[in-house]
Amino acid sequence: MAPYKVMIVEDEKPAREVYKQMITEENELFHVVGEAANGEKGLQLCKEHKPHFLVTDITMPVMDGIEMMVELTKLEQEMPLMVILSCHSDFHLAQKAIELGASSYLLKEDCLAQDTLLAETLKKLIPKLEERVHASHKMEERPPISDPVPGYPNDVMNDVIRQLQADVSKSYRMEAVAAQAGYSAPYFSAMFKKTTGRTFTQYIMEQRVNKAKLLITTTNLRTNEIAEQVGLENYRHFNKIFKRMLGMNPSDYRNVELKEQQGKKVDS
After folding, report:
1. pLDDT tens-digit profile of 180-207?
2. Model-level pTM?
3. Which residues 6+ apart lie within 8 Å of 267 measured at CB?
4. Which residues, in sequence order, are CB contacts of 233 under 8 Å at separation 6+?
5. Closest CA to 6 of 65, 69, 219, 36
6. Which long-range contacts (CB under 8 A, 24 or more apart) does 137-142 make?
7. Per-residue b/e over 89-106, b at no fewer than 16 CB within 10 Å?
8. Sign of CA dihedral 208, 95, 186, 62
9. Disulfide-capable partner of 156 in 128, 135, 139, 222 (CB 3.0 to 4.6 Å)?
10. Do the Cβ atoms of 121 and 105 come closer than 8 Å?
11. What is the pLDDT of residues 110-159, one digit of tens each?
């Protein structure tokens, strides 16, 4: 697959030239396909070149690195693996970039002081890129399924699904989950539905309601407490969703389940 395509987005030309030189010294592995002085131009070049890696500053004119990353998540193409170059004063923005799916974060002064740091960081991300490509190929080969398939331990989507199943109390935004997985939102949405047979929202709601059913039948928690534990703190909204999916509200469901359990005890 090498050489891998790399894009550099940095508003300071001298720094941009230094980064380019650092990367091109590893020309058997990396090829710089484009450079930009702001996020708007960087976004345009990403659409054109579809780079494997994006090395970007955060604070830039016209469109900053964060805005560019947000726009990248909306494209119908895979997100590049992103290496963020930042100053100390940009730390809160760097945290935001990590939330949006950035793979690595380097301080500019460290990068400029250590000639091999940037290239070595990109090298460490190659296995992640190869894993993503492998997972995408597996995804394209498989028909829609109702549950994750065992035997695909490196499948990015199965990893996402396991995380969703592990904790339904969290609030999940598809765009954020997609970015963390390294995909644009439209591409992620299509892959998710191909894997589960459901939209992201449908799947999350099913997991929340399934967890609620378990808590209703195995605990004495009140409805509002259960709603909170399954990530739906507005218990009225929780009741509405529960009734829409099961045809009865949580209280009625508990009564029905209790009667069935008591009937089974009598029969035994």
Report:
1. 777 777 788 888 888 888 888 889 999 9
2. 0.59
3. none
4. 227
5. 36
6. 139/191, 139/194, 139/195, 142/194, 142/195
7. ebeebbebbbebbbbbbb
8. positive
9. 135
10. no
11. 988 899 999 999 999 998 888 777 655 554 554 443 444 444 334 678 88
Length of the chain, in residues: 268
Angle ∠(160,230,254) on CA atoms, nearest 5: 130
167-191 in b/e form (b: 16+ CB < 10 A) is: ebeeebebbebbbbbbbbbebbbeb
Q: Give kind and range of the element (H or E) at residue 7.
A: strand 4-9
The amino acid at residue 202 is Q
Tokens 């945290």 locate to: 95
**Residue 112, number of CB atoms within 10 A of its CB:** 17
User: Per the structure block, which two tokens stand in for 90?
Assistant: 């940009």
DSSP state of 91: H
Strand partners, 105: 84
Contact 230, 215 (CB under 8 A): yes
- CB 266 within 8 Å of CB 248: no
